[in-house]
Specification:
heterodimer, A: alpha+beta, Alpha-Beta Plaits, 5-stranded antiparallel sheet, 4-stranded antiparallel sheet, 11 strands, elongated, B: alpha/beta, Rossmann fold, 3 domains, 6-stranded parallel sheet
Chain lengths: 182, 588
Amino acid sequence: MVQTQKQSHYPSLTTNEQIVQRTLSITVDNEPGVLARVIGLFSGRGYNIDSLTVTETEHAKHVSRITIVTKGTPMVIAQIKNQLDRLVPVHRVHDLTEEGRPLERELALVKVGGKGEKRIEALRMAEIFRANVIDASTEHFVFEVTGKSSKVEQFISIMTELGLVEVARTGIAAIGRGPEGS
Amino acid sequence: MARQMTGAEMVIKALQDQGVEVIFGYPGGAVLPIYDELFQQEKVRHILVRQEGGAVHAAEGYARSTGKVGVVLVTSGPGATNAVTGLTDALMDSIPVVCITGQVPTHLIGNDAFQECDTVGITRPCTKHNWLVKDVNDLARVLHEAFYIAKSGRPGPVVVDVPKDVQFATGNYVGPSNIQHKTYKPKLKPDQTAVREAVDLLANAKKPIFYTGGGVINSGPKASQLLREFARLTGYPVTSTLMGLGAYPASDKQWLGMLGMHGTYEANMAMHDCDVMFCVGARFDDRITGRLDAFAPWSKKIHIDIDPSSINKNVHVDIPIIGDVAYVLEDMLRVWKAKAPQLDKTAHKSWWKEIDGWRAKKSLSYKKQKDVIMPQYAVERLYELTRDKDCYITTEVGQHQMWAAQFYHFDDPNRWMTSGGLGTMGYGLPAAIGAQLAHPKSLVIDIAGDASILMNIQECSTAVQFNLPIKVFILNNEYMGMVRQWQQLLHGNRLSHSYTESLPDFVKLAEAYGFVGLRCDHPADLDDAIKEMISIDKPVLFDCRVAKLANCFPMIPSGKAHNEMLMGEDVSDEEVGKAIGKEGKTLV
C-alpha cells in the first residue's frame, strides 16, 4: 500500500512501506490522567487507535494495563512505541504482535429484538457461537459473546439480519503466549 | 526525618532544598499562601514579572544561560493559561522549567469556580509531565520529582498544580534525597557496539560532517569540550543547528556556520554531499532537512540522542546511539584514540577543497548601503563592538533572529538564547531578564524586531524594577519582516497585514518605562550609538532604523533540497517571487 508519510512537514514524500497492525500492551502507573496522556499522544501526533482497553490489573501496586491495537508503517509503529515509552508514568511497552502471535480476545453484549422465526434463528445461531443469553423477554435477547474479534464481527453481522438492536464491545484484551510474563 | 509543615511552607522549603535562588512569578488568589511564605524568607528571590508568559520565558533564559532549572510560580486560571506558550516553548526547545500553579480548593475543582481552569488538562500536551496534588502529604515528593523529571534525560517543562486548601493543610515534608523515581530512568550511557561501529564509520569517511544541535548544550559544558576535542582530532567540518550555536567555536577554521533554511551555503552543500553524517544532539527538524527525499542522499548517518523517540522520526539513520552527548562523546573519543585510525588524508583534502569552493560563494554577503542601515550590517557592527565583552544574546523571532544567528558569532555554549522549535515572538526580552539575573555583571542583549518586541514589551517594567541593565537592540523595519518576506515569496508580494501602521515611538516608550531610549538611522552614526548603548549602566531600548524591505538570505525555499539554495546578492525580486513551487506553498 502506498501511503503519504504524515510525520513530516514535507508531504511530497511517499513510501512503499506496508501498513501493519500491531497490538501493544502498555503497563502504566494507575494515576489520574494516565489514560488521557496515552490517548492524547495518539490524537496529538495523528496515530490510529483501532481498539483500546484499560483496567487496573495489579491493585496492590496500582498498575494498569492498557491494550491498544494500532496500525501504521513500521517507522510510525516504532515512533508510537518510543513516544509511549517516553511518558513518565509508563513502565513498559510491549509489542505483542512482534513478540509472537498474541492471544487476543474480545467480549460483546448484543441485543436482538423480534418475534417468531427470526427469534428462534437468533437463539440457534447463539448456540453455534457459544453466546450466552444474559437477559431475555418475549421480545428480545441480550447475548454475551466472547472470542477473537473476527468471531464477534461475524456474530454481529448475522444478528444484523435477525433484528439487531444495539451492541457494546469491550475492545481487545491481549496477552503473550508461553510461561513468561511481559 | 519527616517534618510537619503546611503545603505553602513545603513549596518554599522544597525550592530551598533544590538550591533554587530565583523564581519568576505573578501572585493571585490561588497562590496567596505560597506568596505569604515567600514574604517571610530570604533565600529564594522572587522576580515579579508583568505577565505570566514573561515569567516562563524569563525562567527559560535563566535556565539556558546557567544550565540550572528555571522556576515559575503563577496563580490558577488565567495565570496558568498565560504560561502555556512559554511551557510549549520550553518543551520544543528541551529547557528545564518547573512551573508551580495555584488551583482553586479541591472541593471546588470541576465547579467552574472563579479563576478555575483544568490546568493539568491544558498543560498535559505541552509539558514533559504534570501533577495535580490533592493530598498535602504527596506535595514534597511531587515537587522533588518535578525537579528530577525537568532536568533528567531530555530536559523539559513540568507543572505542579497545587489547590489552595492543600497549601493551607499540614502534612509531612520529605527532603530531595529520599526521592527515587519509579518509572522514569533515562539511559545516559551508550551501547558500546554502536560506539565502535560509529567510530569505524567516521574513521573511514571520505566526506564527513559533524551536524550538532541543542543536545550538546543541554548535556553541559563538558559535552562542548569533548565535541571540540573530537573535531580537532578528526579535522572534520562542523555545522550546527540554531539551537546548538556556541557549542563549537564560530572562530574555528573547521566551522562552516549554521545549516538549514537560513544556514550558509557551505554548511548546506556539505550536508547534501557528505558520505558520513555525524549528528550530535540534533533532531532532523524540518527547518534543517528541507525536502526529505533529497536530504543528504549519499550519506550514512550516525545519530546521538538521549531521546529514543528522536531516532528515525524524520530521517532513517544507520547507527543510532541513545545516550547523553557527553557520555557518548567520551566513549567515542576513547575508542578513537585507542584505535588511532589511519584517515584518508587525500579524500579529506579534496573534501575541504570542495568546501572552500562553496565558502568562496560568500553566501552571507549583502549589498551595503551608504545612507540606510542594512539589518545585517547592524548585527555585524553589534558583534564587532561587543565580541570582546562577556556577552549573552537573546532574540525574538523573525528575520532579525536569523540575521543574529548568521552575523553574531559564538565561541562558547549557553551564550545564545532563542526560541527555536516553537518560534515564539516575545521570547527575547523576558529571556534577557532571566539571563541578566543569572549574570548581573555581564552584557545581555536582546536582538529584537519591531513587531516581536511589542509582544512582551510590558517586561521592560520588570527590568527597571530589578535594576537589570539589559539592552534591547531593535532592528526596526516597521514590518513583520519574515511574514513580509514569505508574502513576497509565496503570495505575489501582497503584503496582507504585515506592516505595522502605528508603531510606538520606541525612544519615548523607553523613557516612559524608565529605560534609556536611543535611536539611530544612519550607518555612519551606528558605531557611536552602539558604543553609547554599551556604556550605559541602565536598561536601554535601541531603535535601530534599518532598510525596510531587506530579505533574509541565503534561503532553502520550502519544499526544496539543500543544494537548491536561494542566494542573496544575485537574486531579483522576480526570482524571489517564483522560488517556491506549488507544493512548497502548503508548507510552513
